């Protein structure tokens, strides 16, 4: 079974802190993604990566950056956390084949106070 | 740009009955794929079913089927014989190419529909 593991289930951070969300997958997937989920808005893509050290902006990249130094690991960084970044963050991975579904981690609920 | 619209914020169904969850999409890409995911209250995202834009037949996976109407740009999920465990949020999503054909597999999601199954 594909396993996508997010390092934390719950996080509470203060405004202005630098926050790291880590994600690891064990299926040798080329693609990795970070989404945020907010009520009524569905899932919105923050950043994705299709190869090591490669990254592309998604629909809402402002205030975020990412790092992919190894194929299995994709990190989301909030350079200076703000209260409007309080959300559920979902990491996912997939093969690049068009029919390949995304496999999701269990999510990290981040609260910025 | 791609867009997915789920117009039903919430749906109710009686146990053992069938239910249809609506999904319409908009894309200029001739080749695309449509996905449905289930998210129970535990929060995990569970992949249910996939439909390719050039697939000849509507996709089916057990009690799930996809009513794909390409001309109408709709990809409704049909759940037959609903069970209490089907109560969850359901997301429709699309993968397509942008103008340069470099989608790299990213999915665009709709807002979701909360399904409640009554005993």
Characteristics:
heterodimer; A: 113 residues; mainly beta; 7-stranded mixed beta sheet; 4-stranded antiparallel beta sheet; 11 strands; 0% helix; B: 119 residues; 6-stranded mixed beta sheet; globular
Structure characterization notes:
Chain A is mostly beta strands and 113 residues long. Chain A is 0% helix and 57% strand. Chain A has no helices and 11 strands. In chain A, strands 2, 4, 5, 6, 9, 10 and 11 form a 7-stranded mixed β-sheet that branches. In chain A, strand 7 and strand 8 form a beta hairpin. Chain A is globular and about 40 Å long. The model of chain A has no long low-confidence stretch (mean pLDDT 94). With 119 residues, chain B is mostly beta strands. Helices cover 0% and strands 50% of the residues of chain B. In chain B, the strands form 3 sheets. In chain B, strands 2, 5, 6, 10, 11 and 12 form a 6-stranded mixed β-sheet that branches. In chain B, strands 3-9-8-7 form a 4-stranded antiparallel β-sheet, with no helix packed on it. The mean pLDDT of chain B is 92. The chains are: A mainly beta (113), B mainly beta (119).
Shape assignment of chain B:
globular
Helix proportion range of chain A = under 10%
> Helix share of residues of chain B?
under 10%
Biggest β-sheet of chain A: count, sense, barrel?
Answer: 7 strands, mixed
Radius of gyration of chain B: 14 Å
Topology order of chain B in helix (H) and strand (E) letters: EEEEEEEEEEEE
Multimeric status of the protein: heterodimer
Instruction: List low-confidence stretches of chain A.
Output: none
How would you state the average pLDDT of chain B, rounded?
92
Class inferred from helices and paired strands of chain A: mainly beta
User: What is the mean predicted local confidence, pLDDT of chain A?
Assistant: 94
| Count of helix runs of chain A | 0
Number of helices of chain B: 0
Q: What's the N-to-C terminus distance of chain B?
A: 41 Å
Number of strands of chain B: 12
Task: Calculate the terminal CA-CA distance of chain A, rounded to whole Å.
Answer: 37 Å
